[in-house]
Design a protein that fits this description.
heterodimer, A: 282 residues, alpha/beta, Elongation Factor Tu (Ef-tu), domain 3, Rossmann fold, seven-stranded antiparallel beta sheet, 15 strands, globular, B: 462 residues, five-stranded parallel beta sheet
Chain lengths: 282, 462
């Protein structure tokens, strides 16, 4: 069992859990993920490692309550435990050797982009963080991101924080203004990553994206997480989750996200009816 | 007096049209009377060809003799002298190519039903006898076993019996490997697998789940942390795809994903369990092995109206066990042999059909089978919404890519000595599918046994 040591709500739907997992904490690197299972009948879900503390032996995960399992996860409290917690999985991000990097986080993607920004900062790179949210109430990790960034741009779709626009707009204007990025890291919804890649393609700037498809084992066994990259089938769990964004077939990835949509609704509805899974606002 | 009936005593089974709607076990097992009757068909011949046909050399005539005498517990104990997992082997071994394939009764009629009797003895013991667990005296030596499938379980069992302190590192949340995630409940009930694994725990084997070796710990770190030897039994888990158009469409699964959802994650109980699986009205399973049969029979049970096995060679070349083919046909699985898929057709991102061509058999190829050749102008489309790829698996590269000094084949298999399972790295042994490529449970168990003997020698002489 893997004990929850700390719980924090980052906004209404996004929660942070710090999990006791010393062996994973010892090996974890930015870009890697874990797979967890809450209970015996539970599904296995992948979540990117948002932070880790090797000394304290903890791994931090940040998740949005979107599906049946994440909603149930959100009902757990400090002192509760997860049945299974496996990792660190996937290939760590290659962050060495860059001078100036734009790190882009869209919504929950900010939680995954943050450890990358932190690592780049510690390696001496100049980091421009561009994080975007639907509205100001959903902004997460602003202070944390600022602490590891040279410049931080926070934008909202509706302008409620005083800065209206998409992350891709900010990126484009930075590039136009002469920010000489040698790398862009974009993490967030598929559509956001796609649009960012469309921008960076024009300028020929290398762009890394982090894919988070449906997964079961996370070790290359099921092939459920396959993504088309440069026309080849890759498994996000063992070949990724980071890929060259200019080669990823985002349309295919967006389609594959729909595979179990109707079952997801059925599962939430079932848990609701039998009084499990906490909130039923999904 | 031997029972000279030329055919096997039939084993009761669920009726095909009943069982293809549930996940309960298909074959119901012999009653004690049926078992005695069948065991009496053994002629107890002198040179015991059956024993040499068994990868772990179970003392077959001896255990059959005990069954014939009604000494079922003794029969079980006789089997377990050489086989750690009889309830499993009795159910999933390809006996027709092994013990039963060599039985002299098979020359004129059917062989003795050795598999069914092995299963009977194991089931009888589990249900009626109190397991004697003599925890062996520790010899103070530690062995790490990576992976929790058949090769690893048999290696761990043999070493534990010799007094080694054995730790199994399993990547999944439960040990068992293909026995848990691959082979369906209706062919191998998971309670039985769990019970066999519990038996290992009872003799002192420590099973650590959620441990992906190569990620959380490396093989070298394991050796440095005080283990005297390591056995790698990580199987062949990496699914192959055909590389045809449309494999990224929704509705296309690897057999691994489809079966793991159903067996390990119990998606057949969804939404009571949380992992879903989706099957269309018509399903095509591509491949002709046991995995293909399992996937097809699962799809049928999940409500598919028409399930097709699509195989590019003829039925004679199918690698699946005879019994699986027979059961699949009984359950109304439609066999489209000499049919090769060329493209998966989609509509709005979902599978809509499988384009195929007809094949005919040509010259013999390197595998000794007649090579299928495409027939001209035979292109046609099968109307399906789900396509399951069951065309084989290759070894997982995780260990290979994180272990220095471990020699591997170009196709990814770990190179290990056939007799000792020793790899190019000192103190590291490997066996099962990770060495041979995808094969059978019993061959993997045989390798695990060989490795256990070699590891014992190695540590003693260290």
């Amino acid at each position: 069992m893997f004990k929850i040591l700390k719980k924090r709500a980052l906004n209404e739907q996004v929660k942070l859990l710090e999990i006791e997992a010393p062996l994973i904490a010892k090996k974890a690197e930015p870009g890697q993920f874990i797979i967890l299972r809450i209970n015996e009948d539970g599904e296995r879900i992948p979540l990117t490692i948002a932070d880790f503390d090797r000394e304290r032996g903890t791994v931090t995960i940040i998740f949005q309550e979107v599906g049946m399992t994440t909603k149930l996860l959100g009902t757990l409290n400090e002192g509760d435990a997860l049945l299974d917690f496996v990792g660190p999985l996937g290939v760590a991000s290659h962050l060495e050797g860059y001078k100036k990097v734009a790190v882009i986080g869209g919504g929950l993607g900010t939680a995954i982009a943050y450890p990358q920004a932190k690592k780049l900062h510690s390696l001496g790179a100049e980091v421009d963080s561009i994080i975007g949210f639907r509205n100001k109430d959903l902004i997460i990790l602003e202070d944390e991101v600022k602490a590891v960034s040279t410049n931080t741009f926070v934008t909202t779709d509706d302008g409620s924080n005083g800065c209206k626009g998409f992350v891709s707009d900010v990126l484009k204007s930075n590039i136009e203004a002469g920010a000489n990025y040698d790398l862009v890291i974009a993490i967030g919804p598929l559509i956001m990553m796609k649009v960012v890649c469309d921008v960076t393609k024009q300028y020929g700037i290398k762009t890394i994206v982090s894919m988070n498809p449906v997964m079961i084992d996370g070790t290359g066994m099921c092939g459920g997480c396959r993504v088309l990259v440069g026309g080849e089938t890759k498994f996000a769990c063992v070949d990724g989750p980071d890929f060259d964004g200019h080669l990823v077939d985002f349309d295919s990835a967006m389609n594959r996200q729909k595979m179990f949509k109707s079952e997801e609704a059925q599962s939430s509805e079932h848990k609701c009816r039998i009084g499990l899974g906490g909130k039923c606002n999904g | 007096m031997a029972n000279m009936c030329p055919t096997k005593t039939p084993m009761p089974e669920q009726a095909p049209t009943v069982r293809n709607k549930n996940f309960k076990e298909v074959a119901l097992g012999y009653t004690p009377d049926q078992a005695i009757e069948e065991a009496k068909r053994c002629l107890n011949c002198k040179n015991k060809p059956c024993v040499s046909g068994c990868p772990v050399n179970v003392k077959i005539p001896d255990f059959l003799a005990f069954i014939a005498e009604g000494e079922f517990e003794k029969a079980y104990l006789k089997i377990t002298e050489t086989n750690a997992l009889p309830a499993i082997c009795g159910r999933v071994c390809p006996q027709e190519n092994q013990c039963e394939g060599k039985c002299v009764r098979g020359l004129k009629g059917e062989s003795v039903a050795i598999g069914r009797l092995e299963r009977f003895a194991a089931d009888y013991y589990r249900e009626n006898c109190i397991a004697k667990t003599n925890k062996p005296t520790s010899n103070g030596k530690k062995v790490a076993v990576i992976g929790g499938g058949p090769a690893s379980l048999s290696c761990a069992g043999d070493l534990a019996k010799k007094g080694y302190s054995v730790t199994i590192f399993e990547a999944f949340h439960t040990a068992g490997g293909v026995l848990m995630y691959g082979i369906p409940e209706f062919r191998l009930p998971k309670d039985i697998v769990c019970k066999e694994i519990d038996n290992l725990r009872n003799i002192g084997v420590d099973i650590q789940t959620n441990m992906v070796i190569g990620k959380i710990l490396s093989v070298d770190e394991i050796l440095e942390s005080g283990y005297d030897a390591v056995f790698i039994g990580t199987g062949a888990g990496l699914p192959k795809f055909m590389g045809i158009d449309g494999e990224a469409l929704n509705g296309v699964y690897s057999a691994n994903e489809f079966l793991t959802r159903i067996n390990l994650m119990k998606a057949y109980k969804f939404p009571e369990t949380d992992t879903p699986v989706k099957v269309g009205k018509n399903v095509a399973v591509i491949g002709g092995g046991n995995v293909a049969m399992d996937a097809a029979r699962c799809a049928k049970r999940l409500g598919a109206e028409n399930v097709y096995i699509v195989y590019r060679r003829s039925e004679d070349e199918m690698p699946a066990r005879n019994e699986e083919i027979h059961h699949a046909k009984e359950e109304e699985i439609v066999f489209k042999t000499l049919t090769n898929p060329t493209r998966i057709i989609g509509e709005d991102g979902w599978v809509k059909g499988l384009e195929c061509v007809d094949m005919e058999l040509g010259e013999h190829d390197a595998s000794g089978r007649r090579r299928p050749v495409e027939k001209k102008d035979s292109q046609h489309i099968i109307d399906v919404q789900t396509v399951i790829m069951a065309i084989g698996q290759s070894p997982n590269p995780l260990i290979k890519s994180t272990t220095d000094g471990l020699a591997t084949q170009p196709w990814g298999g770990i190179i290990a000595d056939e007799q000792t399972c020793a790899t190019s790295k000192e103190g590291v042994y490997a066996g099962g599918d990770t060495v041979t490529g995808a094969a059978t449970v019993i061959l993997a168990m045989g390798a695990g046994k060989k490795a256990a003997a070699a590891i014992d020698e190695y540590i003693k002489n260290k």
